[in-house]
Design a protein that fits this description.
The complex is a heterotetramer, with two copies of chain A (147 residues) and two copies of chain B (413 residues). Chain A is of the alpha+beta class and 147 residues long. Chain A has one domain: Alpha-Beta Complex (Sufe protein. Chain: A), CATH 3.90.1010. Chain A contains six helices and three strands, in the order ααβββαααα. By secondary structure, chain B is an alpha/beta fold. Chain B folds into two domains: 143 residues, Aspartate Aminotransferase, domain 1 (Alpha-Beta Complex), CATH 3.90.1150.10; 257 residues, Aspartate Aminotransferase, domain 2 (3-Layer(aba) Sandwich), CATH 3.40.640.10. Chain B has 15 helices and 18 strands. In chain B, the strands form five sheets. A seven-stranded mixed sheet of chain B has the order 4-10-9-8-7-5-6, with helices on both faces. In chain B, strands 13, 14, 15, 17 and 18 form a five-stranded antiparallel sheet that branches. The chains are: A alpha+beta (147), B alpha/beta (413). Chains B and C meet through α2, α3, α4, α5 and β11 of B and α2, α3, α4, α6 and β11 of C. The structure holds pyridoxal-5'-phosphate (2 copies). One pyridoxal-5'-phosphate sits at the interface of chains B and C.
Chain lengths: 147, 413, 413, 147
């Protein structure tokens, strides 16, 4: 993974790929999905996120919306990374992602492609874009726990 | 040790004069002088990070936004709440109007009751009068005790199942009493109502912990605590803020709206901050709070108590004075001067004091209903802050001794 | 001769950087940089005349009050009205809410109509939506012409006898058009309605004469014309102000009230200035207006027009740009950048520009209904003020040329 | 009159006398009187003024209220000075009074005892007190003219 972190060209390609061909980028009309509508404080990014949790596993993650390249790619990468994980695995990944953003220690292995945003903490005004969908996911999982 | 000399050097106004005499500023209930660090914080916005907030499209805007949000955390730490419970307003008056309108309109109906007292400032009365007009609810007055205090007993006696809102001042701006908000909150909650606290005269002077007080709302103004004007705070328990209607609508407080008239508002606190806020005022307030915290609210309260005790005991020695609150809790003393038994009109005396550099306010101090209680139309008010000194009190006493109808008239020539 | 170099030296922010590059501030529609004289006016309040206004019991308070009232006269002179027609608000948003509530509640009833356009800022839409909810009146939209302009013809077509209020922006904050308010006012009055003008984007840039325009209300913000935040102006014809309800109630705006719920409010403008206002903000606004007057509004408008023409013509030469308003009247240009035919998301481009010192905003600029017209969700906005230069435009053009999806993404590493 | 202007002791005595024994200090319940309620911006001075105009002459002036020594004495002196004057005389006196307050030239003879307030323009914060009742009078006369 080291090669990815230190390879800006590869990182850019991954982000562009996810922006131009976002994964899991279609909502579904199914009551079993937990839903959240995310707005960034910019009044502009506007992402809807859906998660299907079944027997402690995140069976599906979907999103749709209008957002910048960073926010779109972040959501797409997140959806791929989280799909199929147990809730506790997902929570660990989320925690590591936010550590990375905060420029603290984190487990690269866990974050896979998401490490492309490793430097975003230095571009402070883009942090919101790179975390919007992740915050939404966390909120959905937290709500799930309360039930 | 309270390093008063060092503190006074932080306030440029303390080097000024009033009518050619060294300034002795004793009108801190109206507004307060500003320390250098507050002035510097405002200037820093003007000179280094000017830009609008709520957007981070470029770095400068991010810096301003970040500073603004940090101010929220500083306030939250200061009054012990979550930062999302801190709404920036334009002042106490705005905050009270926001609560009366935003909470009251949704939760009050005909014949419900709002409890206040005659000791409230106009800003904690008129919004409730209007709410009553709009909803058919009634405003009732909790009687003060014989000293003019709000007591838990009288609050309890006034409560009944129709009461939905109780709104009280924490520190009276005329009589300087501190109410037992914690006990009152318990009684109000037991009766199923909410408690709104006007902290305009308390937050600047004593440590305020909203968790401890358990009030539902607390409002105060930056300019009465060394901060800029046009900024105040409305604290609200988050579950109440969540259900409250905004008073001002516009940019920055909505997620979206459409041509069909649908509006989706943001969550609190953003929902209550329509339009461009007082950005440099918020940053100045942050600096003011940090300044107070550096000195320590406990030390400030203690120093002010000693100063107040001194002032009261010296004033009591005068034989031409009527003190309306000989036992205030905070540094607010309301009095009148007599001349051969006749009460001098406060404004004449205040003008006389001004000639000697002393800045005190006369009048009814916007608490116009309180005169039912005091039996006088107006008083002169000496209101202290932590940069005042015994020497300043001595000067006040010295000048008050010489105040007569003659001497008050002579100053106009 | 427009002494641009001399002018630029008055603005300390122009010596700053953004992300390490010399600051090029092109977000003047959001807020503007402050000249030294404004900063000095605010500091003067903090360092020399701190005290509350509305009372003259001592000299200092008199000085502050006098300075505050003088500011009213400076504003009155600036927009050509009487000083008692100048109400200080906390900003355009506050002013529009005050009018919608204070005039609308008393004068509108079910099925009356309020006319606005999709080009309005949220602050000139949402207060009317709420007024409609409260009164049963309807908000209707005057269609824009194909360029996105408000035309007299379309206003006339939309008017009918049920229309009571027409509220329009003088200068559009997205498309930079100036509406013919004078002709529109005549049509609106002929139909028996009143005209509210949102001058947030016009008053800072072109000479504004309310007598000449004959609008009934005009609102604007200090911070968009070199002044502080938390201050704005609501002009109203006096006979309308006289009959208008205050939005905020409290200290300073009433003569008296009693325990029976009776309230006697002061006359305009005091009636609308409840609580402690933004005193230093008002004094800063006064300095800003005097600064603009010293340069001359005509000169400012002319310089900005030339700069805008230059910017538009240079931008048109780019082949990766879509300009949504190729013929703006004032210095506001809304555009997007394309990469191989695909529109880049504005925020990505703005972040890229920021890396080069350029401060431009992306988004919908709070005019969320306008997208019906433009067919895009967001734009990047270049908004000029009189301290901007051709050299800054050249830099913008140079950087825009290199904006691609790749280069926009690269800046995050 | 020069002696009065330059005699602070005498001036003080006049003001004290008018404050302690205000003239024309009782309102009357008579519809023929024009009435005005005056509040100073201090929220405190509160004076009611009544004027009876009959055949171009100010037949009576009365006032009552709560006010400081300066405002009370000013109202009392004004009432004495104006009573019995024709409207045009009164207007001339008013004009001279405001000139005096503004530290401009004025006719001492016309103002009589009212010259005690000659220096009030230097004590700027008391100008309101010394002019409240005079402004009220002016307003009543102006309204009268409009009828
Ligand atoms: C007890 C009290 N409440 C409210 C206010 C109003 O505060 P502001 O004028 O800052 O809105 C004041 C200030 O005079 C006050 O003393
Ligand atoms: C046209 C227009 N109206 C209203 C506003 C709101 O102004 P403020 O945020 O100062 O209240 C703005 C500012 O963005 C604007 O551009």
């Amino acid at each position: 993974m080291n090669s990815l972190k230190d390879n800006p060209i590869l990182k850019r390609e991954i982000i562009m790929d996810h922006y131009e061909n976002p994964r899991n980028n279609q909502l579904i009309d199914d009551e079993n999905y937990r839903k959240i509508h995310l707005y960034s404080s910019s009044c502009l990014d506007d992402i809807q996120l859906q998660v299907l949790i079944s027997q402690g596993v995140i069976a599906d993650v979907r999103f749709e919306g209008i957002a910048c390249a960073v926010a779109t790619a972040a959501a797409s990468i997140m959806s791929e990374l989280i799909k199929g994980r147990s809730i506790s695995q997902a929570e660990e990944i989320i925690e590591n992602y936010f550590s990375m953003i905060a420029q603290k220690d984190y487990d690269e292995q866990l974050l896979k492609e998401a490490v492309v945003f490793e430097g975003i903490g230095r571009q402070v005004n883009r942090v919101n874009c790179a975390t919007l969908s992740w915050k939404g996911l966390k909120q959905l999982l937290d709500e799930d726990e309360k039930r | 040790m309270f390093e008063i000399d060092k503190i006074r050097r932080d306030f440029p106004m303390l080097e000024r004069t009033n009518e050619g005499k060294p300034l002795i500023y004793l009108d801190n209930g109206a507004t307060t002088l500003k320390p250098d660090c507050v002035i510097a914080a405002v200037n820093n916005y003007y000179q280094n990070i000017t830009s609008n907030i709520h957007r981070g499209d470029y770095h400068l805007a991010y810096l301003a936004d970040q500073a603004y949000q940090q101010a929220r955390e500083v306030v939250a730490d200061f009054i012990n709440c979550q930062s999302k419970e801190v709404v920036f307003t334009y002042g106490t008056t705005h905050g009270l109007n926001q609560i009366a309108y935003g909470y009251g309109i949704k939760n009050l109906k005909k014949d419900d009751e709002i409890l206040i007292t005659v000791a409230e400032h106009a800003s904690n009365i008129l919004p409730w009068y209007r709410l009553a007009q709009l909803t058919g609810a009634k405003v009732r007055f909790i009687p003060l005790d014989e000293k003019g205090k709000i007591t838990v007993e009288n609050v309890k006696l006034a409560l009944n199942e129709r009461v939905k809102i109780v709104s009280l001042t924490h520190g009276s701006n005329v009589l300087g009493y501190i109410s037992d908000i914690k006990a009152i909150a318990a009684a109000v909650h037991e009766a199923g109502a909410i408690l709104v606290v006007d902290g305009a005269q308390s937050v600047p002077h004593i440590k305020t912990d909203v968790k401890e007080l358990d009030c539902d709302f607390l409002v105060f103004s930056g300019h009465k605590m060394g901060g800029p004007t046009a900024v105040g705070v409305m604290y609200g328990k988050y579950q109440l803020l969540e259900k409250m209607e905004p008073l001002l609508l516009g940019g920055g407080m909505n997620y979206r709206f459409d041509i069909a008239g649908q509006m989706l508002f943001k969550d609190a606190p953003d929902r209550f901050e329509a339009g461009t806020p007082g950005i440099e005022a918020v940053l100045g307030l942050k600096a003011a709070i940090q300044y107070l915290q550096n000195i320590g609210m406990d030390k400030i309260a203690l120093y002010e108590k000693q100063l107040k005790d001194y002032a009261v005991s010296e004033m009591k020695k005068l034989d031409n004075i009527i003190i309306y609150n000989p036992e205030p809790d905070i540094g607010i003393i309301s009095f009148n001067i007599t001349d051969q038994g006749r009460v001098l009109f406060g404004q004449d005396v205040a003008a006389y004091l001004s000639k000697h550099g002393l800045c005190l306010r006369s009048g009814n101090h916007c608490a116009k209903n309180l005169w039912h209680h005091l039996g006088t139309d107006s008083t002169i008010r000496c209101s202290l802050y932590f940069y005042n000194t015994k020497k300043e009190i001595d000067k006040l006493i010295e000048v008050l001794k010489t105040a007569t109808l003659e001497s008050c008239i002579d100053v106009i020539f």
